[in-house]
Write a structure and sequence with these properties.
The chain is of the alpha+beta class. The protein is built from nine helices and 15 strands. The chain has a 15-stranded mixed β-sheet that branches. The longest helix has about 40 residues. It is elongated.
């Protein structure tokens, strides 16, 4: 979703500038015409003498003439702008789209190409065939992805709003490779890593009322290992907000497909005064979790299978609190700390490692979490939103209950994790809401 947010945010900035230029010309033209009308319109007879003297005074000071010049120039510029748009729309639509794509590609260090483009500037429609995007200089990931077709329908009347409204976006036949950048969590953050941790904020915010991505086949690489194969039949999200891209993907979408051949689904539905979402992952190789997070001990599994079910619900409102119920079933699982793991990580997670490694039967862990939508604002991943930190805290708490451990060190480790999460949530809730924040349409 990061690539979608970046490309759409950059692309929409160009029609936004065009609409802004036309709107400014139109406003100045109307305002100049209004002033000219006010100072030249006849008033009732009792005031004619006074008005006549006023008009003569204004004329002597050269007021009316400059206003007529401004009105004429603005009208000309506005008409020329409309004419330019009409010519581009009729004869140079595809070259214009190619020019915009070239500018985005140069700015973002990407290669963007497509076989054909058609659409209409005035209705806000765009259809691209054979779209290909390549990037080898990404801070979070590199892309080599193509889509058979992309159909976009923009509400042109929203181009000057804080968040542009896209009525629908349909992407079909997505295939390619995504290589996620490895991170060394034991070293000081490099400039590239610091940049990768920056919020995901597009150049122009947008809301997609109806997002549909069909027939996805991607190879996900992490740290040059064997890829995971992500094959989705459908991904539908209503709405999809650029400022909450990760949240809307995982908490407002309906997704069906397979991850490394195993069934994966996200089902989201409305309930009275709120919403409910369910994640399901069946018989997944648990060692592959390391491709999605660097949080210990989630990335320390060396073997085993995982069946996961997560249910969450929340009530309508600004930045609702999400209550998540997790059920994780590990079969034949083994956890080993890597050679470079810190002593603190080993100490904190030792109870979980010993518990899982010491079990011959399946390990069934259940726990609940509370998150807030605000955590996901401009987050680039579930990791950045704090979900995996919360999951580790939940695992340790569930372990303490299942194992019946009462050792002070274990309890203190669990308490530190949970208190850290609470501080993180409290900090987010205390932050003032920024102007222009995108919210889900009611």
């Amino acid at each position: 979703m990061e690539l979608l947010v970046i490309l759409l945010g950059e692309f929409l900035f160009f029609p936004f500038l065009g609409a802004l230029f036309a709107a400014v010309n139109l406003f100045v033209c109307l305002f100049s015409g209004f002033l000219q009308f006010i100072f030249s319109a006849p008033l009732p007879l009792p005031q004619q003498a006074l008005v006549g003297e006023t008009e003569k005074a204004l004329l002597r000071h050269g007021f009316m003439k400059p206003m007529k010049v401004i009105l004429t120039l603005c009208a000309i510029f506005f008409l020329l702008t409309l004419l330019a748009f009409a010519v581009m729309n009729q004869f140079f639509f595809e070259p214009t789209v190619r020019s915009i794509a070239a500018q985005i590609a140069q700015k973002k260090g990407m290669e963007i190409s497509f076989a054909a483009a058609q659409g209409n500037l005035f209705s806000g429609t765009l259809v691209l065939d054979g779209l290909t995007v390549k990037s080898s200089k990404g801070t979070r990931a590199d892309f080599d992805v193509e889509a058979k077709s992309v159909a976009l329908d923009v509400n042109v009347f929203s181009l000057l709003s804080s968040a542009i409204i896209i009525e629908s976006l349909r992407v079909d036949g997505v295939a390619g490779d995504i290589s996620m950048k490895a991170r060394d969590v034991t070293a000081l953050p490099s400039p590239a890593q610091q940049q990768a941790d920056e919020p995901l904020k597009p150049k122009k915010a947008f809301v997609i009322h109806d997002l549909s991505i069909l027939h996805v086949s991607l190879r996900l690489y992490n740290n040059s290992t064997e890829p995971l194969h992500l094959a989705l039949n459908t991904l539908e999200s209503k709405p999809f907000r650029s400022q909450y891209a990760i949240f809307d993907t995982f908490f407002r979408s309906n997704i069906q497909g397979r991850l490394d051949g195993q069934w994966l689904s996200i089902t989201s539905r409305e309930i009275p005064n709120g919403r409910e979402t369910e994640w399901n992952l069946e018989d997944f190789p648990v060692a592959a979790i390391g491709a999605f997070t660097d949080k210990a001990p989630l990335n320390w599994f060396t073997r085993g299978r995982l069946t996961a079910q997560v249910k969450d619900r929340w009530q309508d409102g600004d930045h609702p609190e999400i209550i998540m119920d997790w059920s994780l079933l590990f079969e034949d699982a083994r956890v080993e700390a890597p050679a470079g793991a810190s002593l603190l990580s080993k100490t904190m997670t030792l109870p979980l490692i010993n518990y899982i490694n010491g079990k011959t039967e399946p390990v069934d862990l259940k726990f609940s979490l509370r998150l807030n939508e605000r955590q996901f604002e401009s987050a680039s991943s579930l990791d950045a939103a704090g979900l995996w930190d919360a999951t580790v805290a939940g695992l340790l708490e569930s372990l303490a209950v299942n194992a019946g451990e009462k050792k002070k060190a274990i309890q203190q480790g669990v308490k530190d994790k949970i208190d850290g999460l609470k501080d993180f949530l409290k900090k987010d809730e205390d932050e003032p809401e920024e102007e222009g924040e995108t919210k889900a349409p009611e």
